[in-house]
Amino acid sequence: MLNIISTGSNYIIIIMCVIYALSSFTVFLPSSEKRQIKRMNRQERYMFLFHFICYGVLFLKTFDVKILILYVVEVFFFLLLIFIYEHLYPDSSRVLMNHTCFLLQIGFVMLTRLSFDQAVKQFLIAVVSSTVVLVVPFIVAKAYWLKRLRWVYGLIGLAFLSTVFVIGTTKNGSTNWISFGGFALQPSEFVKIAFVFFIAAMLEKPASFRKILVTILFSAAHVLILILEKDLGGALLYFVIFIFMCYVATGRFIYMLGGVSLGALAGRVAYGLFSHVRVRFDAWLDPWSDIENTGYQITQSLFAIGTGSWFGMGLTQGRPSDIPVVESDFIFSAIAEEFGVFFALCLILIYLGIFVHFLKIAMDVKGRFYKLVAYGFSICFIFQVFLNIGGVTKFIPSTGVTLPLISYGGSSVASTLIIFAIMQGIFIIAYQEEEEGGDGGQTTEIEKTGGAVDGDWEQTDA
């Protein structure tokens, strides 16, 4: 009976997710504010219905009252978070808030299915992080002096990254964690935020060759520390952020071309220096030749995705635990196995919708510093999604990067919530600029629901 309920509910979930994913893009179409609000309300209903159905299936699987209690507490948390944002930040983006809640819900559901204890821990971290970052949009919207702290961002970032050489611990071949008082923290997840602010502050005004050179040296120091930690996924993410932000700030294609060439050379050197890089690369090339050892993780991931097919096995009906580290690096495979490839594709569309929304914010805000920050976080977010999904589907070698807001990992969830809060702050700035008509009469149609018309990249701070 449970199998029938689980399989049948999957079709309802897929239909809801398709509609939700499509609405992630329809908010950008020209329409009245009343119609946009209806779309946002519909999104909220779908995500809460998804949450209810999934936890209903999980409860029927075990009849464990703890699952019901966790579900009720989660619903209260999401409702309270939405209520607080609507009243504390009435000019914030409902699109971004809905996506934040929906991705967290997917993560909580999958973690409850895989490990109840990890789900509880992830939920507590999300609650604390969401509470702490409530002040971030206010700070971003009011603290116009943030762009003056360029050296603070750079120096603090380097110092925090370097702490792993003193109190660091090794995990999965990389020494990129610090532990204290029973808690583990990954500095690179938080330093990437300061890293984006540093580059944006350095390149906020037309930069001389000297300033660009200093920016390159500081950025290279960040990447070098990550390489020494053997956190090559993080090093690649930082490197790509730097290359794209330099290209956008200067408009010179030479930075893009040079970055790609240097990246290819660095990859070849890393293959020769680090054994775990060779293992991952060889497993990516031909995992089937050593399916019991080096190729085990990626082959089990592909088996899970293939077994799920288009419509999925049904929640609790798959075998995601066969995949090593499934709760963090390979959670996308578990989603594809139990909810199906259709759901997985819709999830990718939702991530792309967030990326497009980030870009719209970058184009609509007038200040060049905020444009660069928003663009930097856009690249940071979507490239992290690409690294994770590309790794689990054998499109690229696995890099050990988490799936934002879904994978298990307190540092990843906390840093992503900070990024989303910063983007909310920049959205509020853009909305208020439009309300005030701050560019001499040329205004944009920025809706609180997320719709906007492209701004002018060349404008300076209002």
How is this structure best described in words?
With 462 residues, the protein is mostly helical. It contains 18 helices and three strands. It has a three-stranded antiparallel β-sheet.
Annotate the secondary structure layout.
Layout (H helix, E strand, L loop, with lengths): L1 H25 L6 H30 L2 H24 L5 H21 L1 H17 L3 H7 L7 H13 L1 H4 E4 L2 E7 L2 E3 L1 H16 L6 H20 L3 H19 L2 H21 L1 H11 L10 H13 L22 H9 L1 H24 L3 H25 L17 H27 L26
Antiparallel strand pairs: 1-2, 2-3
Tell me the radius of gyration.
22 Å
Q: Determine the N-to-C terminus distance.
A: 62 Å
Choose one word for the global shape: globular
In the sheet with the most strands, the strands line up as 1-2-3
* Average pLDDT, all residues: 84
How many β-strands, per DSSP? 3
Which percent bin holds the helix content?
Answer: over 70%
Strand content: under 5%
Major β-sheet annotation: 3 strands, antiparallel
Write down the secondary-structure element order: HHHHHHHHEEEHHHHHHHHHH
Helix segment tally: 18
Task: For the structure shown, list the relevant keywords.
462 residues; 3 strands; disordered C terminus; globular; mainly alpha; 3% strand; 18 helices
Give a short summary of the structure.
By secondary structure, the chain is mainly alpha-helical. The chain is 71% helix and 3% strand.
